[in-house]
Write a structure and sequence with these properties.
Layout: H1 19-35, E1 39-44, H2 49-52, E2 57-59, H3 61-70, E3 75-79, H4 82-91, E4 97-99, H5 115-129, E5 151-156, H6 161-169, E6 173-175, H7 180-191, E7 196-200, H8 203-212, E8 222-224, E9 228-229, E10 238-241, H9 253-262, E11 267-270, H10 276-281, E12 284-285, H11 288-296, E13 303-307, H12 310-319, E14 324-327, H13 343-354, H14 366-381
Parallel strand pairs: 1-2, 1-3, 3-4, 5-6, 5-7, 7-10, 8-10, 11-12, 11-13, 13-14
Antiparallel strand pairs: 8-9
Helix pairs in contact: 1-13, 3-4, 6-14
This protein binds iron/sulfur cluster.
Length: 384
């Protein structure tokens, strides 16, 4: 089936369905019933309404990875982007299949770090700082208590499986925006007094989390792939990879100012993938789940601007008609890759599953399973 989709339209604002859209929704409902408990559909908060209405669970990448890990379903259809489906495949058993409805749904931030660039940065940073590589530890992941200082790799969930494998093999860990503070504390416990963390690919999440933990900016240099660090690495605590989210980097201090001029008593909550200047002038920042809880707990009549992906903002506005909720950037598009999961693609993969075919399966190779599973399990074992 060939489906042509607009990259940026406003159908997320339109709650009514055309007859064609209704027919697709009805067929998906029938197919889900036919597959029963063999099927679990996961929907990220950034998916459009016509997708999340079919999801068994809606959440952020952390919550959905836990759901995948706990599931016995034969087929896990992941309505999100490629790295999320990879993580689900790593965390599930060999007899479970993880399916991404559109294989082109990637993440531009995840693409900003690749294994050759990270390996080359790793060697250069170790050479310049004289820090130790935890790969040589007998029990990677344990606190060494050997008086040495280490470089600990931490990758954001938004990264490919081979980078998670690299992190796992080098005594490191995966984080999400829900748990970044706890994960960085875990890493510092293992780095030793003069050790450091290499954090990739999102510089903003790393910087905002570091600042919230009291680490000054001069101890957080930025590493530009193929070029190197923007300053000397001596004394660095977090070395930030020069990656970013093209959706969240659009939220600015000026937008916060304009909203506050309109609503002097209004509140602003943003995602920590936003630039630090925007986070600093906002009232609160946190993961998509944090933002959802924040808005739900505001009293009736509150006015709030949200700095995150528009599908989630529109859904929160629909669910809370007693509050004034708007997107901090009124011209923002949805995440163009999350938007590639169209209901017609979901219907198509379910049709094939019913017919006995397994389409669009995401399979993480055995070579990278072990390290990436280690890095993900370390993350899941940390109490939040
Ligand atoms: S919102 Fe940003 S980080 Fe999330 S999938 Fe889209 S591009 Fe990637």
């Amino acid at each position: 089936m060939t489906i042509t989709l607009p990259m940026c339209s406003i159908d997320f604002m339109d709650t009514s369905m055309s007859p064609e859209e209704q027919a697709i929704a009805d067929r998906i409902t029938e197919l889900r019933q036919e597959l029963g408990s063999r099927l679990m559909i996961l929907g990220h908060h950034y998916q459009r309404d016509s997708i999340v209405m079919h999801a068994d669970f809606i959440g952020d990448s952390f919550m959905l990875s836990q759901k995948a890990a706990d599931s016995d379903a034969e087929f896990i259809v992941f309505c999100g982007v490629h790295f999320m489906a990879e993580s689900a495949d790593i965390l599930t058993d060999d007899d479970q299949s993880v399916i991404l409805p559109n294989l082109r749904a990637g993440c531009s931030m995840a693409d900003m770090a690749n294994l050759p660039d990270v390996e080359s940065a790793w060697s250069e940073i170790l050479a310049e700082t004289g820090l130790n590589d935890p790969i040589n530890r007998q029990s990677p992941g344990d606190i060494p208590n050997d008086g040495k200082s280490y470089l600990i790799p931490v990758t954001y969930m938004n990264s490919s499986a081979d980078l998670k494998d690299f992190v796992g093999r080098h005594g490191g860990i995966v984080c999400t925006s829900s748990n970044a503070t706890g994960i960085l504390s875990w890493a510092f416990d293992r780095a030793g007094a003069d050790g450091a963390v290499l954090f990739f690919p999102d510089q903003h999440l790393g910087r905002n989390t570091g600042l919230s933990m009291g680490i000054s900016e001069d101890k957080m240099p930025t590493w530009v792939p193929k070029i190197g660090s923007d300053r000397a690495l001596t004394g660095a605590k977090i070395i930030l990879w020069h990656g970013f989210c093209s959706v969240h980097k659009r939220f600015t201090v000026e937008q916060v100012k304009l909203f506050r001029e309109k609503y002097p008593d209004g509140l602003v909550v943003v995602h920590p993938e936003c630039p630090k200047e925007t986070v600093e002038v906002s009232d609160a920042n946190g993961s998509t789940q944090f933002i959802k809880n924040y808005v739900e707990n505001l009293p009736s009549g509150s006015k709030v601007a949200i700095g995150t992906e528009i599908n989630m903002v529109a859904r929160l506005a629909d669910s809370h008609p007693d509050k004034h909720i708007e997107c901090l950037d009124d011209k923002i598009c949805p995440c163009s890759t999350m938007y590639m999961i169209h209901p017609a693609y979901l219907m198509d993969v379910l049709e094939k599953l019913v017919d006995g075919e397994i389409p669009n399966q995401i399979i993480v190779s055995k070579e990278v399973q072990e390290g990436s599973l280690l890095a993900l399990e370390r993350m899941l074992s940390i109490k939040q």
